[in-house]
Amino acid sequence: MQKQNEQVKYFLQYLSLIPVIAVISISVAFSTWAVFNYFFPDLLFHPMP
Running DSSP on this structure, what letter comes out for residue 45? Predict the structure, then answer.
């Protein structure tokens, strides 16, 4: 019974870690995208002469 209780504890800890990793990874992805678009803007809004 003790082993199953430990498995439930580790599973709940794993479930609480997933949203943290998701928020961090999405923040890094969108920050990278924003910085890239700052240095290399879309040609639709900044047409070449």
Answer: T
